[in-house]
Design brief:
9-stranded antiparallel β-sheet; 3-stranded antiparallel β-sheet; 35% helix; 12 helices; 12 strands; alpha+beta
């Protein structure tokens, strides 16, 4: 946390903007022009509108002032935004490659679990990155020794720390700093601040011991945080869709237009076969329309595009990752193809098929259908490779269970880059109660 996010990354930004201890670029040309860096700052601030609030807090214009950036802010910016924002912004592409190598290192260290083989590879990649850092920024010039900061050297010890202590989430400082922040906010006395602090620590420890001894976590907890395992009066779960909770706003008696009905027909035809005209004739003319969905067990909350408001403060959480499977024959053998797609969730339709022989085994069942406008990402998986698109396609209908989660996106130079946080990464989740003792509970 401190080595990378609060030292190495800000140091690189200072190098790129010509503000590192009065040093120039020497024999290299890594500095980004002021007007280009101003564009990067504007794109950073604008990107937040299309990134769900669950991903990161609001990021300001990094070119104007990044004093409000926390370790969490720097982490998100360098991993998900910088590779896109700084593409083709350096005078030489080798500096962008050096940045992307650092992103690879950060992602590897953030894995929830890591093998010794991966640590060995990480050690080599870090050593190579530090060597290039010295070549680009230190340049083996005695007058440029200030570029060789202690945190850059500290990177060389990260791999061994992982071998000795395990993944970084087992020792990172988020927990301790959150703990200290809690007591800092509790300081009320200006005359006896240390006594005030001592009592706060003591009484908090009393409460924690009571929780552990008498199993009264709910009674003692001071948190008003919602229990997401419980439904509100306005939320609904349908059979066969236990992990998908529909939330208002909704339209109980919604009549899909001709184009939407045709897309529903095309989807159902894949399930039961038959002629389009016959399916259309027996398809319900009225369906209920829902505009929000929450995925259980730590999943995402998604707001359909049809529920979006015009407020500038609202974060866009309508873009999603969805996964499809289909069969194809290759060299005479039938195989199942798994396809990762991205798109914008437009609407959620609840279609109850009537009891009619036309529907065969599906007669009387309820389908939750997602109307999605796909992004043309050519089947790329943004968790595995950079995924960009510049155009969207015609809407489709698919089963809501194919929707896997919400994504963010960032626009730069006329293209959109997908931000998909799915993967084996450890992320800090802050619980305001401070008394959570159930190690199996998490989000």
């Amino acid at each position: 946390m401190h080595v990378f996010l609060e030292n190495v990354v800000p140091t690189l930004v200072k190098h790129w903007t010509g503000k590192f201890k009065g040093m120039d670029t020497g024999k290299e040309d890594y500095q980004i022009a002021d007007h280009i860096w101003a564009e990067v700052g504007e794109e950073t601030a604008a990107a937040i509108a299309n990134i769900p609030a669950a991903f990161v807090r609001v990021l300001g214009n990094i070119a104007d002032d990044h004093s409000s950036f926390t370790a969490e802010s720097w982490s998100f910016w360098i991993i998900y935004l910088a590779p896109t924002l700084l593409r083709n912004r350096f005078p030489n592409t080798k500096y962008h490659k050096h940045l992307c190598d650092l992103v690879w290192i950060l992602k590897k260290t953030l894995q929830f679990s890591i093998t010794h083989t991966e640590i060995d590879e990480l050690e080599k990649r870090i050593a190579n990155w530090v060597a290039k850092y010295e070549k680009y920024y230190y340049q083996y010039d005695e007058s440029r020794l200030p570029a060789c900061t202690l945190p850059v050297h500290g990177m060389l010890h990260v791999a061994n720390d992982l071998r000795q202590c395990g993944p970084v989430w087992t020792t990172w400082s988020f927990f301790l700093e959150r703990y200290c922040q809690k007591f800092k906010l509790a300081l009320k006395s200006r005359v006896q601040p240390w006594g005030n602090l001592n009592k706060e620590v003591l009484y908090t420890t009393y409460l924690q011991q009571v929780v552990l001894r008498y199993d009264v976590q709910d009674e003692v907890s001071l948190s008003n945080r919602r229990d997401w395992s419980q439904l509100t009066n306005y939320e609904t779960i349908f059979d066969d869709y236990q992990d998908y909770i529909l939330r208002p706003p909704r339209v109980i008696s919604y009549e899909p237009d001709g184009d939407e009905r045709l897309k529903v027909v095309l989807y159902i035809k894949q399930l039961v076969g038959g002629r389009r005209s016959v399916i259309l004739a027996h398809l319900p003319t009225v369906m209920s329309l829902w505009k929000k969905v929450r995925i259980q067990n730590g999943g995402d909350s998604i707001r359909a595009h049809s529920a979006a408001r015009s407020s500038k403060k609202q974060r866009n959480s309508s873009y999603i990752r969805y996964e499809l499977e289909y069969e194809e024959r290759v060299s005479g053998a039938l195989r199942v193809v798994h396809l990762v797609q991205y798109g914008r969730l437009e609407k959620i339709l609840v279609c109850t098929l009537p009891n009619h022989t036309q529907w065969e085994a599906m007669a009387g069942t309820t389908l939750l259908l997602a109307l999605i406008r796909p992004c043309q990402t050519m089947g790329k998986d943004a968790t595995q490779e950079e995924t960009r698109y510049s155009r969207t396609l015609a809407t489709i209908i698919t089963d809501l269970r194919n929707v896997k989660g919400v994504i963010g996106q960032i626009e730069s130079c006329g293209e959109w880059t997908i931000i998909d946080r799915r993967g084996d990464f450890a992320k800090p989740i802050f619980d305001n109660s401070g008394y959570n003792t159930d190690e199996s509970e998490g989000e």
